[in-house]
Amino acid sequence: MDHFTDAVIIGGGPAGSSCGIYLQRVGISNMIIEKRSFPKDKLCAGLVTEKTYRQLSKLIKTAVGTDVPDEIFCDKSKRIKLFYKDEPLTDSAVSSLFRLVFRRDLDGYLIETYKKTGGVLYENRTVKEYDLDNNTLSLDNGDTVKYKYLIGADGALSPTRKALGYKSPDYIFCTETFVPKTAAFDDNCVRIYFGYLNKGYVWVFPHKDTLCVGLGDEYRKKTEYEKVLRAFLLSNGLDDGSCKIKGAFIPYGECPDQKRGCKNAVLIGDAGGFADQITGEGLYFALSTGEAAANAVINALSGKADLKKEFCRQTAKFAEIVKHSAKKGKMFYMDPVMNAFRKKIKGKNGPVAYFCDNQISEYNYDYSDITKLFTDYKAGGR
Ligand SMILES: Cc1cc2nc3c(=O)[nH]c(=O)nc-3n(C[C@H](O)[C@H](O)[C@H](O)COP(=O)(O)OP(=O)(O)OC[C@H]3O[C@@H](n4cnc5c(N)ncnc54)[C@H](O)[C@@H]3O)c2cc1C
Questions:
Q1: Which of 95, 100, 246, 271 is geometrically suited to a Cys-Cys bond with 267, CB 3.0 to 4.6 A?
Q2: How many whole angstroms from 382 Cα to the centroid of ligand 1?
Q3: Atom of ligand 1 nearest to the CA of 285
Q4: Ligand 1 centroid to 253 CA: how many Å?
Q5: In whole angstroms, what is the distance from residue 127 CA to residue 145 CA?
């Protein structure tokens, strides 16, 4: 079967769904090609920061005119505890809510919303061949798709990125599991543990009657990530060694330079390398770059702008954050910096809360200016 569409989106995660929904709103033909079928799991700690929630709310308002249903969230927290190994450092009450989701629920809800707006989803399909010169994709079932614009939203390992000739980004490697909540962790806190990894952290997040426990670190072949997580679980009485641990990548570093390369194709979300290296947060970027790609398609189709230029213009601020987070992330985890940080913040609940509210929940500062953030805090905040 031959399909003709203005925009073909490869990947039906948050980035792809967001792009598709914004295109549906203005009646531009599009389709999503998704490798798997829904409902499906995706390895993720499911922490939705305030800025991500705002982006999600805007998307849902645009799509169906309602608020995001509260049932989507499995937990909420306004308290964060930092540790260095098992030494407690801070216990902070934050102003912005941390919302938690199971990705099975979030991704399912987003794709259902896309379908509700009339979006066309092809599940269990992959691209067998990218004929970029003729704007044609051959799918694994023999179908062909002729498009004007190609949107790569196929995640961290993105086959579309490879087909477009961009080099792979560096990766954070994560391992994660869900375990039953224990009494010691039943206080609705988000917990972050430094000191277990070379350039990353262990997290314990509340998820209803379970805990999401995972780690993320700069990827090194020799590090035995599963072993580290198992030891953490065991020493905290969270598991006896029998839980299933899975692994996945998050891209980090500089985003591929999308100013160059194929003129009518862009990469969004993880495929485009849009993730915060310090926190590992990617949902905000997935939803935001999905919207940016849709806007770029809308402007390109109306003849007002060039797709690539418009997309790069709209995503420049996200690429900057990604770049700075990678630079600062590398420094932050160096032994002398981490040791100084550990001593300096011990018991400083207020500054940590201010950092979380202004740098994690919102990007009120960029990572190049962390000193200013703490100076502002001392001066009573912005
Ligand atoms: C362990 C872990 C914990 C994380 N925790 C958080 C967190 O707490 N908060 C946060 O904001 N971010 C977190 N992230 C990052 C976040 O999960 C990603 O940034 C986000 O999922 C990116 O969305 P996306 O749509 O770009 O990619 P994805 O969610 O990966 O979606 C890509 C889609 O493309 C599909 N696909 C893949 N290959 C093909 C193909 N060949 N053809 C067709 N379809 C294909 C996939 O099946 C998938 O549906 C975490 C990541 C990991 C690994």
A1: 271
A2: 34
A3: 19
A4: 17
A5: 10
Question: Are 162 and 176 contained in the same domain?
Answer: no
In this prediction, residues 332-337 reach a mean pLDDT of: 87
Tell me if 79 is assigned to some domain. Answer: no
Convert the pLDDT of each residue in 204-213 to its tens digit.
999 999 999 9
Nearest Cα neighbor of 1 from 126, 145, 143 is 143
Return the CATH number at 228: 3.30.9.10
Residues 243 and 125 in one domain: no
| Structural domain containing residue 190 | 170-251
Q: Within this chain, do residues 69 and 217 fall inside the same structural domain, yes or no? A: no
Last-in-domain residue among 251, 279, 304: 251
Write phi, then psi, for 185 (nearest 5 degrees): -115, 15
In the prediction, which pLDDT does 298 show? 98
Q: Is 251 helix (H, G, I), strand (E, B) or coil?
A: strand
E strand or H helix at 311: helix 307-332
Show the 3-state SS of 48-70.
ECHHHHHHHHHHHHHHHCCCCCH
